[in-house]
Specification:
- The complex is a heterodimer of chains A (582) and B (219).
- Chain A has 20 helices and 23 strands.
- Chain A is of the alpha/beta class and 582 residues long.
- In chain A, α16 links the parallel β17 and β18.
- In chain B, 35% of the residues lie in helices and 13% in strands.
- In chain B, the strands form two sheets. Chain B has a five-stranded mixed β-sheet, with no helix packed on it.
- Classes of the chains: A alpha/beta (582), B alpha+beta (219).
- At the A-B interface, α17, α18 and α20 of A face α2, α4, β2 and α5 of B.
- Chain B: InterPro entries: AUX/IAA_dom, AUX_IAA, PB1-like.
- Chain B: Its main location: nucleus.
- Chain B: This is Auxin-responsive protein.
Chain lengths: 582, 219
């Protein structure tokens, strides 16, 4: 029977495939499927902007409508990547402005975005709809003004946690009067005050507005007016939640909130005055996501609020909630899936709140759907970790930060190997894990043996020898991202598992014991990896080969070496052994 | 001890032992072959990525080896930053994003000036601080030798505070009128508590004193 399936039919079938993995599989079936698929792929995700070049992407996928991309390594969030390292999006925007005139969406994370980029975006893509800049930097409010002024069909402008040079709040006034398409606006990271009347008018003429995240500068007294104009809001981020205590403000706010029947997510809450919290009580039963991680209020105020949110699925909160508050949470919020507890005083030597491992144990016991945890605390025990592991075998993300590096089990003074071992052994679906506390090579043996679905692992101040790293690299079959700092891991494990690195997105190692010589060897022998040494002490050639490098970043790539490296980044490859810089 | 570097075949899966598998592999070209002009034999080479060092399976020997290596190795120092006024801090630890770091500095600065943490109870607390939900201040009653401590955070008005003080010092009804509640503010001045709104009082009080009415004082 002749193979006469019309292309259009195949294309139609492929249009139901949204996952990249599925589309990649489809492309491998045969040449004609590859061709059909590449012409109809509309969304691409580039996990590491240096793994591929704009040219390669555009050549293969000519009709893309949405691009999502990530730049700097995750540890850049904690100042471990020096300023100027890279992650520039400009070359991508420039190439796409010519190749993808119909581009609608750009989502970037940890990339350097300039005002020039923003202006180019606003002028090149007539149908531009969605701009999400997550933890990005390099632009000012002038760039935002270009986007506001020129993107006639803008639906989403989300600046989550980006560092924006805030020249003035005037940018918001650049949204033209006939712009009514806004669905989502997140300006919570901005410092300056925007014109409130411009904001009010914008909200009033945006009937599809679902998400509004204000910045701290929007005063509480004015919040009611805004909310009143958008009762259809699903997610709201307040500004500063404080004002002089006046009953008219409270009444106004209470009425405004009660009109928001669709509200599911709340955030903001800087400078909370507890007296104003009851204004929100009417919406609590519908709330599924609550970000109180900037709310510096005491445990009993937090508890009063949180225990009313019976359908809560996600809670981000400061450690002011304390163990007692978490216990109350565990009793009231049976749908809880994600808990993040942030430290209010991460640099203090002594605990300032009564939050211990007990809080997490309570939540793990009381919340059957708990699967994602980020928890900062000052003490932990193997017993607690074992308990958590047994309570919640369906855990998917487990990130524990015991504030003191190398802190042992506070009850037995032993390493926490057994505890984390229980986590990986019981939680077979675990995809992300961050370790802390006193850990020997043994914990890595457990991880290598059991954590078969683990995709991302973060290690700090742990392990005794290369054996630890070897266990991870040789055992964790699904590993994609590995980031390590301040561990005694050296050349042996790295070189013995060089092949593994091609199956991963990236490896970061800083303040470890990897020698320059080993980096050179790795770079020379593995042409499909970029092996980059980041060292602010000057050229690594000026030191002996046995000298350890400050930082090492290894990632697979089909784009060859970077051409935009700053002076403190050296690439190790078979051309002149890394003598050349950028 | 020198590190022996050898190139050798990976100890991975034995390829091509299944004849069916072989057959299929011959028929189907891999991605590289089909679209990047790579020859089949080269593709095989590509896939046989070789470790650059053979991991010695002998664990005991390894530990010894590692021990020796460790001595020669540079023991990594904690990356320490000096840009903090107080004790040295490890760079990027604890792993909180810059937003949160700035925010925490703000909180701790505020806590120092508004006495929201337990300023009077340092050191003696032993295991764990009192927590942010306490605000203990010293209270002295004129004529009484012993200074007491009071948790102000549980009070919301002068009314409840006064009631507590009366109970604490066992002041009988007729004597209540004889005392004035005064407080020392952040600048060290002694002020009459009821002269200021509760909010102002609670934000600046450092200690309390019950003074007999006849006493004169200066602010």
């Amino acid at each position: 029977m002749a193979y006469s399936f019309p292309e259009e039919v195949l294309e139609h079938v492929f249009s139901f495939l949204s996952s990249d993995k599925d589309r990649n599989s489809v492309s491998l079936v045969c040449k004609s499927w590859y061709e059909i698929e590449r012409w109809c792929r509309r969304r691409i995700f580039v996990g590491n902007c240096y793994a591929v070049s704009p040219g390669i992407v555009i050549r293969r996928f000519p009709e893309v409508r949405a691009v999502e991309m990530k730049g700097k390594p995750h540890f850049a969030d904690f100042n471990l990547v020096p300023e100027g390292w890279g992650g520039y999006v400009y070359p991508w925007i420039a190439a796409m402005s010519a190749a993808y005139p119909l581009l609608e969406e750009i989502k970037l994370k940890r990339m350097v975005v300039t005002d020039e980029c923003l202006e180019l975006i606003s002028k090149s893509f007539k149908n531009f709809k969605v701009l999400v800049l997550s933890s990005c930097e390099g632009f000012t409010t002038d760039g935002l003004a270009s986007i506001a002024a020129n993107c006639r069909h803008l639906r989403e402008l989300d600046l989550r946690e980006s560092e924006v040079e805030d020249l003035s709040g005037h940018w918001l006034s650049h949204f033209p009067d006939n712009c009514t398409s806004l669905v989502s606006l997140n300006m919570s990271c901005l410092g300056s005050e925007v014109s409130f009347s411009a904001l009010e008018r914008l909200v009033a003429r945006s009937p599809n507005l679902r998400t509004l995240r204000l910045n701290r500068a929007v005063p509480l007294e004015k919040l009611a007016n805004l909310i009143r104009r958008a009762p259809q809001l699903v997610e709201l981020g307040t500004g500063a939640y404080s004002a002089e205590i006046r009953s008219d403000i409270l009444l106004n706010l209470t009425e405004a909130f009660s009109a928001c029947k669709q509200l599911k997510g709340l955030s903001g809450f800087w400078d909370v005055v507890p007296a104003y919290l009851p204004a929100m009580y009417s919406v609590c039963s519908g709330i599924t996501s609550l970000n109180l991680s900037y709310a510096t209020i005491q445990s009993f105020d937090l508890v009063k609020l949180v225990t009313q949110c019976r359908n809560l699925q996600r809670l981000w909160v400061l450690d002011y909630i304390e163990d007692s508050g978490l216990e109350a949470l565990a009793s009231s919020c049976k749908d809880l899936q994600e808990l993040r507890v942030f430290p209010s005083d991460p640099f203090g030597a002594e605990p300032n709140v009564s939050l211990t491992e007990q809080g997490l144990v309570s939540v793990s016991k009381g919340c059957p759907k708990l699967q994602s945890v980020l928890y900062f605390c000052r003490q932990m025990s193997n017993a607690a970790l074992i308990s958590i592991a047994k309570n919640r075998p369906k855990m998917v993300r487990f990130r524990l930060c015991i504030i003191e590096p190398r802190a042992p089990d506070y009850l037995t003074l032993e390493p926490l190997d057994a505890g984390f071992g229980a986590i990986v052994e019981n939680c077979k679906e675990l995809r992300r894990l961050s370790l802390s506390g006193l850990l020997t090579d043994r914990v890595f043996k457990y991880i290598g043996t059991h954590a078969k679905k683990l995709e991302m692992l973060s290690i700090a101040f742990a392990g005794d020898s290369d054996l630890g790293l070897h266990h991870v690299l040789s055992g964790c079959e699904s590993l994609r991202k590995l980031e390590i700092r301040d561990c005694p891991f050296g050349d042996k494990a790295l070189l013995a598992n060089a092949a593994k690195l091609e199956t991963m997105r990236s490896l970061w190692m800083s303040s470890c014991s990897v020698s320059y010589g080993a980096c050179k060897l790795l770079g020379q022998k593995m042409p499909r990896l970029n092996v980059e040494v980041i060292d602010e002490r000057g050229p690594p050639d000026s030191r002996p080969d046995s000298c350890p490098v400050e930082r090492l970043y290894v990632y697979r790539t089909v784009a060859g070496r970077r051409i935009d490296m700053p002076g403190f980044v050296w690439t190790m490859d078979d051309e002149d052994s890394g003598l050349r810089f950028s | 001890m020198e590190v022996q570097l050898e190139l050798a075949l990976s100890s991975g899966s034995g390829k091509g032992s299944d004849p069916n598998q072989d057959c299929d592999q011959r028929k189907k070209r891999s991605f590289e072959e089909a679209f990047m002009g790579v020859k089949k034999k080269d593709v095989d080479d590509l896939h046989e990525t070789l470790p650059l060092l053979i991991w010695d399976g002998n664990e005991e020997k390894k530990q010894q080896f590692d021990g020796e290596l460790l001595e020669q190795k540079h023991i990594p120092k904690l990356a320490i930053s000096n840009n903090r006024e107080d004790n040295f801090v490890v760079v990027g630890w604890p792993p909180v994003k810059s937003w949160r770091r700035q925010f925490c500095h703000q909180i701790s600065h505020r806590e120092c000036t508004t006495n929201y943490v337990n300023v009077e109870n340092n050191g003696g607390g032993g295991g764990g601080g009192r927590g942010s939900n306490s605000m203990y201040v010293k209270v002295k009653m004129e004529g009484v030798g012993i200074t007491r401590k009071l948790n102000l955070s549980v009070h919301r008005s002068y009314h409840s505070l006064t009631a507590k003080l009366i109970a604490m010092f066992g002041i009988c009804e007729e004597n209540v009128e004889k005392y004035k509640l005064t407080y020392q503010d952040k600048e060290g001045h002694w002020l009459l508590a009821r002269d200021v709104p509760w909010e102002t009082f609670i934000h600046s009080v450092q200690r309390l004193k019950l003074q007999k009415m006849a006493t004169t004082f200066y602010s």
